[in-house]
Each structure stands twice: as structure tokens, then as C-alpha cells.
Specification:
Layout (H helix, E strand, L loop, with lengths): L7 E6 L9 H12 L4 E6 L6 H6 L3 E8 L7 E6 L14 H12 L4 E8 L11 H26 L9
Parallel strand pairs: 1-2, 1-3, 3-5
Antiparallel strand pairs: 4-5
Helix pairs in contact: 1-4
Length: 164
Amino acid sequence: MHGSAQSVLVIACGNPLRWDDGIAWQAAEEIGRTLQPPVEIICVHQLTPELAEEASRADTVIFIDATRNGEPGKVLCQTVSPDSTAVCFSHHLAPAQVLALCNQLYGSEPRGFLISISGECFDHGTGLSPAATNALPKSVAKANELIRRVGVELHNPLQRLSLN
């Protein structure tokens, strides 16, 4: 279960060999340069059931992923609630399914957030489109703000975490 310190797990999902699909990994690198434990960072190509064990040990899980939806360069942050209705054991899960497995398999209920970054180019290749390059600092700032607020909430339980 959870330790006495508030722990945060950042899971960056994407493929750095598919242009903007690699933005989550770049965001994770930036977050890792500025933050110290208890923040743990994992970069994966896709969300798999095996991540539930790691996520079950965290108090908060922040998923970062690129999306083809939305205006390129837009950064959206939303809460993620466990969704066990669609959990099936496949090789690819949604963030809500990873959180559902945390509960089903380990009795853990970490709080979840998803930072989605709208990409422009998902072709084979490396680098980021101009829109994704502009979104990178915004996504890192949003993740750092969530991590900071989780720590503040730990010390002041009356402070509620808001995504605004």
C-alpha cells in the first residue's frame, strides 16, 4: 500500500520514433531534471497490465500522452477515475483501466490525472512538430504544478486539488 510520504508516479506513454507521439517521453525527461523523489518516472510505449503493480504503490499517478484529437499544441489535464467495466487483459490499456487494476489486484486506489498533448505529426521519424515543441513547456509546467499541489494537499488536507 501507500507509505507515509506522498508518492507520485509519472507514466509517460508514447513512441519517440513517431514524431509528436514521443512528446510524453520528452516531458518526462524535463520533469525528471527538475524534481526529486518521491516522484518516480516511467516511460513506456503503451499502457499494459504490468503497470498496475507499480501504480498501486503510488498515492497519485500522472499519465502523460500525445493525442491526435484537438488543436495541435493544446494541453489538456483531466482527472482519471478507475473504470473496471472495460478491463480486459490485453496488451494495451487506458489510464482508467490501469487504475481499476490497481484496485482489483492490489487493493490500492491512487488518484489519477491525464495530461494529453494534441500532436500534429505522427509519421515515422524523430523530433517534434512546431505545435508540439510549443506545447512541451506547458505540459511540463502542468505536471510540475500537479506534483506541487499534491504535496501541498498532503500538508493541508483542507486544500482541495483543482485542475484550473
